[in-house]
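ok so I'm stuck.
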Amino acid sequence: MSDMISADLVDLDLSADTKEAAARALAARMVARGRVTDLEGFLADVAAREAQMPTGLDGGIGIPHCRSAHVTEPTLAFGRSATGIDFGAPDGPADLVFLIAAPAGADDAHLTILSSLARKLMNDEFTAALRAADSAGTAAALIRGDEPPAGEEAGPASVPGAAEDTAVAPAAASAGATAGSTGETAAASAAEPGTSAEPGTSTEPGTSTGTGAPAEPGVPVAPGGPATDTAAPGSSGPRPFRIVAVTSCPTGIAHTYMAAESLENAGREAGVELVVETQGSAGFTRLDPAVIAAADGVILAHDVPVRDKDRFAGKPTVDVGVKAGINRPAELIAEVREKAARGEVSAPAHTPAGTPVERAGDATEGYGTKLRTWLMSGVSYMVPFVAAGGLLIALGFAIGGWQVDKAPSVMDHFVWTQTDSWGALLFQIGGVAFKFLVPVLAGYIAYGMADRPGLVPGFVGGAIALDAGAGFLGGLAAGLIAGGVVLAIQRVRIPAVLRGIMPVVVIPLLSSAVTGFLMLVVIGKPIASAQKGLTDWLSGLTGTNAVLLGALLGLMMCFDLGGPVNKVAYAFATAGIAVTDPSDSAMQIMAAVMAAGMVPPLAMALATTVRGRLFTPAERENGKAAWVLGASFISEGAIPFAAADPLRVIPSAMAGGALTGALSMAFGATLRAPHGGVFVVPLIGSPLLYLMAIAAGVCVTTALVVLLKGMRGQVSGSGTAGPAAHPAGAREDTGQPVAA
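replied:
not stuck anymore, here's the structure
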């Protein structure tokens, strides 16, 4: 940290009386050192961060901080006020003020050191030493870790990739829970396989104990249930209560790590095992799935969405803001223990997860898995545009007639009392929404690959693909190219003085130029030709070929019920109607896809109605909701049934979906809207035949599910428990599948 703070960045007699004046005084010192290039611009960024959430903390600490393009290198300034400055802390003004400035493109090593400071601020001895410092040099040395705070033995911990003299907060060091100076999660740094927390004892990989004692591997824990009093093998008493936690704040620099330190300290005092995943600017390492599975409760202290939140579903969960993790950790621990004792858990594990970007995969994933995640990212962000634009266009045709696409612009001609004008209005709004499809697809594929720096070249490449007539395929190519170019640029080592302008100037400029060149000059025309060929082929499908395509799309829609294969089929269909004048073949494909997607939840709902004894009470309740979900074209309504009995439910659903898709194509049913289920039946061509196709598939799937589950019941019914006692191999108490 020696290059981040020095004596001339310390003001022990800070005379400011407001937080704005304090930030200005400390920022002026950064400007004098050449660490900040634009004082007013930087202060505007500080104020914007402060507006999101006050940065005052209990104990007389103010820690304003931000990322800014006006910062040349990570910098820390410290001020001490005799009168105190109001930073919005519940317990009053702050006398210790830390201004943290991070460049927009700061590297992980420096951000790791900043997170170390945040953890150290939770140590009373450290803050007491700063209040007693008699010179700016002494205060700077204490912050750097050159000299231990009063009453603490020197014990600097090495920081990979950072200054070797960074000190570790005594609480973290004595417990051996986390490498506090690195800002890494306890799950990553507590112990590696084969290491020991104490002589002769090994710690479960990826865990950190709140008591200093090693975790006992192999102790069974009921998911979501309270800690039992079962003693671990070789232990003389009951195992401690286990908690996993996630902390995150808008900038991911300070509060994220302070909350983690506070929770870990409170965990040690309460005698619980507590492991924290810090989702901060220095990156994060996911908690070991085994650690999550063994946890008795979850604490989420965050002000931004928790990444991969569905990992914690089915556990007793306390969900609060990040400052609650700093200010009242003991209360949060007590609250989660109370929830566990009551058996109160979070949403079911089958709750739909976030977008693929929010579920970014592990670094160990294969290229195929990553590619699927990137493509799904673009599709997931595109779907709302498809749904909104498609429904508006369909409503426009329904209100204004089939010639509504020939109507003049409503900006030039709109009559309030004419339905034709309202139909034209809806049609033209939907057409504008459709123009975003390819740019959004490309932009968010690049976003899935390279995060925010990928958005600009992705959108630019997608817009070029649209202009070139490359369509959906061009958007896929543009997104992959843009993300790859940004990743390549980010691998280049950049001088520190240029890092601040990289994300806002250099990366967008270079990546957009390269992506645009490749799309315009190299691959745009070939992809446009391929797109035209595909469109012509689809338009020429008739008879048996069309029926086979419908069956294939039906199988895909029902294979994973909203997963990647389902989304590929759906994206294929929506791409065909994503124009203001789609062909009949494209509308037939859309109709077949939606019809097949409605089959699984409707069939499960019907099966639980006609043969309820084959299903658990929980499944019968899910069946009631599946009626509405299926009618609304939400295939995920069948996921609880597929998760409990996949070998019977999924093949049955695929059979019914294939039949429905084939019949829909054979009947020539058409659909302009990309979503809506039975609620858009008036917009469907040949609606009665379309509903017959859906009914046929639902009946086939229902019959197969009932038959297969009944056969299993007859086989297992030879013992003491018949089908009614243990339906479909599920536990009677929860309805979850039992191990085979």
